[in-house]
Amino acid sequence: MLYKPAELAQRQRKHFIKVISVFFVGSLVGSTFAGPMAQIILLCSAVGMCAIFWLIHSRPNNKLAVACFLWLITLQISALITNNNAIYSPIVMCYAIILVYAALFCSKLTFLCLAVFISLYCSLLLLAIRLGYWPNPAPKVSNVSIVVINLCLFIASFSAWFIAKDFRSLLYDLWSENQASRKSQKEVRRIATLDPLTGLSNRTNAEQTFNTLAKTEKQLSVVFIDLDNFKPINDAYGHHYGDITLQILADRLNALLKPGEICCRFGGDEFVLVLLYSNSADCRQRYELFLETIAQEIQIELHTFKVSASIGVSHFPAHGSNFNELCRLADQAMYRSKLSRKNAALLYQPQWQDEHRKKLEMIQSLRSAIDRNELFLAYQPKYDLASLAINGVEALARWQSKEFGWVSPAVFIPLAEENGLIDDLGLFVLKQACKDCKHWLEKGYDIPVSVNLSAAQLSSGMLPEHVFGILAASGLSPQYLELEITESMLMQDQQAIDSQIETLNEKGISFAIDDFGTGYSNLHYLSRFKAATLKIDQSFVRQLDESADNYSLKNYSLVKGIVVLAKTLGLTTVAEGVEDKNTLNTLRAINCDSAQGYFLSKPVTLEDFYVALQNQDSE
């Protein structure tokens, strides 16, 4: 196991105290069995050990205590050697241990001093014996003995120093590796708990904080914040500006938190806050403060801009006890806030759950509606305003569900668009309309059919292939099929759209621009796009009294202008939403070509459409 420098020093201190304790006990035990002189030496050593104990506890630096300890042991051994069998005493082997210990734990100066002292002491002891100053019986010593003992001490000192040097180097390498490992672990923990861009908590850390708070707090608020107009910053200035913007907003939000609360970057331009709940009035004030803070100007280099946000809120434990579940509910509230009005906060309502569940069930039912023959077509006739005879018909999808009963097109068509079902629905309408049109042509009714296209059908690039395949399968001539598209569709990928429309036009299929006047009403695409018909939106048609208020007069002038424009460009006009006789007469007066609406005929089943055709023939 590796330790920090402080931990390592503390561990070494404990080991050193153990070593001193062993020497202290050993000196006391040895003094009970030693002779008088050796007893004095050992007891003096024990007293010295007590002084070293005091030194360890009174001074933070262990090096001085270690040096004193080694000098004490060296002097003790030297005295015992002198008292015993001189240089031939077995105690002399302790010198090697002392040198190794000094090399490991003392400074270079202390090590050299000890080595020199031991060498001089042994040399002088041998020289005293050699010169006859040692009492009898004196050991036999030659001049070579002095050289040999110093050579051995030099080799021992040299070896001890380099062994200790390698050992210290190894310890340093291990310590460095330990530090690098700790740094890596710290970085991993930081990455695991913090968002690298903003420094805020990430989802994992936010969830852990929520779980901790939920154990002690009675109520919490989970606040989901989504920036409303963040993408234009990335598009206009680049992602670098977007990143700086997120960092600025993260600092602003973090500064508004109370102790214990947390702000988390949930992803992209979304933030989640876990707040302590006090009361509803205080919460509303805080949400307004969040919105005001986010809406403050942001200055990055020479550019100044503002962003706004939509906020959704859920409460613990009223709406749920799980962090992820509360985030999901707050996200739903945020999405509704964004749809209703931006720069606003909205609290989650439990009744929404039933709405979402019903919506999901309806989506699943819609997926199998075609196979279960629940979808069918209704037809709304178009009338020539000069003769009031049927001169066309628009095919409209209808859904009679076994689970939900009659479902309005205003409900299921947006569902189909949101969930990728609009292609299948569009193909069903196109196939059935061509099949039915072929059938009434065979009955002698020379009436073309109009079918609405979705943006998904047009953008897929497969429209000509699908249309030609359906016409071939039904046997319907292309001149009897009219495809209706809205103005907004024409503003997408113009080159791809123009190519498909041109391919279909070449085969005799005509196009109508639906809801004209509600989109871009751009004369450029009118000249570029080979349309045959303009369908005037019902919002302008329903109030067409030139003698009424200013609003009606403006509508009258607008519709009349569209009719004049269409005739100038060689286009026919169809007015939608005719619901009274006055509107019908006004349209006839301004030379509009055709009309459709409830006053003339509601959308009817194929059987009722045949009845209308028969009634017209009988008149």
User: Per the principal axes of the C-alpha atoms, what is the gross shape?
Assistant: rod-shaped
Poorly predicted regions are none
**CA radius of gyration:** 48 Å
Mean pLDDT: 83
- Overall structural domain count: 3
Number of helices: 23
Characterize the main sheet. 8 strands, mixed, barrel
- What is the level 1 CATH name of the largest domain? Alpha Beta
Q: Supply the CATH superfamily name of the largest domain.
A: EAL domain
Helix % is: 55-70%
Beta-strand content estimate? 5-15%
What would the CATH topology of the largest domain be? Answer: TIM Barrel
CATH architecture of the largest domain: Alpha-Beta Barrel
Number of strands: 16
Derived structural class: alpha/beta
Q: Largest sheet, order of strands side by side?
A: 8-9-11-12-13-14-15-16
